[in-house]
Amino acid sequence: MSRSQKNDNFIDKTFTVIADLLLKLLPTTNREKQAFNFYRDGMSAQSEGEYAEALQNYIEAMRLEIDAYDRSYILYNIGLIHASNGNHGRALDYYYQSLERNPFLPQALNNIAVIYHYRAEQAITNEQMEISKILFDKASDYWKEAIRLAPTSYIEAQNWLKLTNRLFS
In whole angstroms, what is the distance from residue 137 CA to residue 149 CA? Predict the structure, then answer.
């Protein structure tokens, strides 16, 4: 039994029913349907904190999915898992891969900026001021692009950009 069939939450059940109906109605290949099922099961496992299971499902979805746009979301979610586990280097790799396939993914841009901002703060703690400036500038660049794509999102980043005089630079 797939994870999506075991959902106890009303919203998850509703999503599953609608997704299953759409899969039956839309003209998609069996391979595309399988890829979507693995992706959906990965999202479900991820939302429950079952990261190892989620990664297994995402890897299977990547094996089956051929559409670059769909692959970008799978890669983005793999990046989220690595970031949640504190593996920021691997998270960055997956966020960059997601952007290669879909450059209009503001959440990936935001998460890259968050990692650079975090690393900049670590550099300050280690008294590496020049490195922190470079990392803050990188965070700024990624946040500006995320905000350009989603102007009503990332309010905290917009405030940080204003406070640090980086918004219009």
Answer: 19
